[in-house]
Amino acid sequence: MIKRNHARIIILSLTLWITLAVAPSAFGQSDQLRIDYTVGVANLDQQLFHVTADIKNINQAELLLSLPTWTPGWYTVENYYKNVLRFKITDAKGASVPFVMTRKQTWRVDTKGRERIKVEFDYRADVLALNQAKITKDYAFFTGTQLFLEASGHRKNPSEVRFEIPKGWRIISALKQSSDPLVFTAPDYDTLVDSPTEMGNFDLTQFEVEGKPHYLVVTPAGSFSKENTARFTEMIARVAKAEAAVFGALPYEKYIHFYFFSRPESNASGALEHSNSFVSFAPPATFAQPENMIGTAAHEFFHLWNVKRLRPAEMWPYDYSRENETPLLWVSEGFTSYYGDLALYRAGLMDRKEFLDTVADVISGVESNEARRYISPANSSTSTWVGYDTPVAFGISYYTQGQNLGGLLDLSIIHDTAGAAGLDDVMRTLYNEFYKKGRGFTTEDMIAVINRITKRDYHDFFRRYIWGVEVPPYDDILGYAGYKLERTTIRRPKIGLEVTVAPDGGVQVLRVEPGSTA
Q1: What is the Cα–Cα distance from 494 to 501, expressed in whole angstroms?
Q2: CA torsion, points 450, 454, 459, 464, in degrees to nearest 10?
Q3: With 80 as the cut, is the pLDDT of residue 509 above it?
Q4: Which residues are paired to 109 by β-bridges?
Q5: Backbone phi and psi for residue 29, each to the nearest 5 degrees, phi listed first
Q6: Minimal CA–CA distance to 315: which of 437, 146, 467, 435?
Q7: Are 105 and 66 in contact (CB under 8 A)?
Q8: Average pLDDT of the residues in 427-443
Q9: What is the phi/psi pair of residue 330, to 5°?
Q10: What does the alpha-carbon distance between residue 199 and residue 122 come to, in Å, rounded to a whole number?
Q11: How is residue 94 annotated by DSSP?
């Protein structure tokens, strides 16, 4: 028999012991280094953000802090520190903390005996572009790579961002929203810097795909009619379902489509993918209709899986301090272009003739370029940093090369497996065996997956057409689906093929003609 008071003491002791035993991580979490941010629109006229990084729970003699030099997906070094003003570091009492710049965007901070410090700076946001930040009278926009510091060794730590915005403005961010409409969270540094945020006046449309919230953000407000918005969001939903079917599910809690109906203020135009959003420029004179916009949307949406999650080993993890060269961008971008068109076809937004026309155009784009005789898809991928958004003297696009190879590999795999498998199975296997296991993939990994699926050795295919510059056997591979190439003899021969001028003024050398089977 136990007396009541004695029993209560025992129960309380047991409760405390169980709490400590089953939830040690909850106590450990409070001890890990944490950086929480405040981002304020400090000056509209001078186009300045004011950024404060509150760094707590420091337990080391020195701390390395760095600002990214580039934004993943846009392969140019931008050196964002060039936009920073009045960089300073203080301790919990407001006293100055010594620091030394050890690299162009890295600071070594003396934190011995300091449990908490605060970093502050202004950031001039005066360029509207995919990989830049901009403040105007009506809105402000940035991606995390421009404003957020990385603490070396603490990349997986969570953080919080509080925004201070002008009265009357609203905010939308790819970051996770908290109960406070001005506070957002990120589970780790990579998520933090991969999340665009817009504040100000813009049109916002919410819609659902597979039960998940999606948002269409249009700037400036009033640029896109209600009719076009309804049509476009319906098209987006169909594409999203078609692409999700390849991998089995949508890998996010929410998704945001940021559209600027204006021209960019740098070479960073077009569109740029992020882990649960993309940003696109759609100048009204060119992209006023949903039908002209959906192709880009399909491409960027497929990047959710291909490159944002399923990523070359050379970019796993990203090194934000320098170029991340990889020979696999022909897969990351080229396959994404292939699946963008394929998704439109599968979603019923492109008919068979239109899809075959894209196949013909892609082959033409590769085979009419003299550089294809000298620069392989793997090498064009690696060299992209020398001229990603600027002209080079002699080059070829791995987007086009990879899109071409994606189609050829798809047909070849379907043929080798008697229709039992295709490129979908390769992408799904890579996604499950590499991304889901927290690692990037190599060319050899990809060959091994294809070999396993087809029970055929594809090393020679890769040697000749990916690492090499040989012309693929188009007639043989297209013949697997009952198609052939028709070569038109009108002008001068090029790489053994004849060229002509297409109705739109572009060069056209090949056309896919249907055979006896579908």
Answers
A1: 13
A2: -100
A3: no
A4: 63, 99
A5: -60, -40
A6: 435
A7: yes
A8: 98
A9: -65, -25
A10: 17
A11: S
Determine if the peptide bond prior to 196 is cis (ω within 30°).
no
**Quick one: pLDDT at residue 420?**
98
AA identity, residue 424: D
Please provide the DSSP assignment of 427-484 as one string: HHHHHHHTGGGT--B-HHHHHHHHHHHHTS--HHHHHHHTSS-PPP-HHHHHHTTTEE
**pLDDT, averaged across the chain:** 90
Residue among 499, 475, 497, 512 nearest 373 (CA) = 497
Question: Helix, strand or coil for residue 231?
Answer: helix
The DSSP call for residue 83 is: G
- Binned at pLDDT 50, 70 and 90, residue 489 comes out as low
Find out whether 143 and 161 touch, Cβ atoms under 8 Å: no
The answer to whether 467 and 444 have CB atoms below 8 angstroms apart is no
Residue type, 125: A
Confidence of residue 287 (pLDDT cuts 50, 70, 90): low
Query: With b meaning 16 or more CB within 10 Å and e meaning fewer, what string describes 430-440?
Result: bbeebbeeeeb
């990879």: which residue's tokens? 402
Whole-number pLDDT of residue 2: 34
The 3-state DSSP class for residue 172 equals strand
Asked whether the beta carbons of 57 and 157 are under 8 A apart, the reply is no
Question: Which tokens sit at 43?
Answer: 């000056």
In tens, the pLDDT along 300-348 reads 999 999 999 999 999 999 999 999 999 999 999 999 999 999 999 999 9
Q: What is the dihedral of CA 456, 459, 463, 465, to 10 degrees?
A: 40
pLDDT of residue 221: 96
Distance (Å) of CA 118 to CA 38, 55, 68, 97, 111: 11, 6, 19, 9, 11
Of how many residues is the chain composed? 518
Indicate left, alpha or beta for 154 from its phi (over 0: left) and psi (-120 to 50: alpha): alpha
Which residues make beta-bridge pairs with 38? 52, 162
**What tokens were used for 177?**
């929203």
Q: How far apart are CA 75 and CA 72, in angstroms?
A: 7
Q: Phi/psi at 209 (nearest 5 deg)?
A: -135, 125
Q: For residues 399 and 306, is the Cβ–Cβ distance under 8 A?
A: no
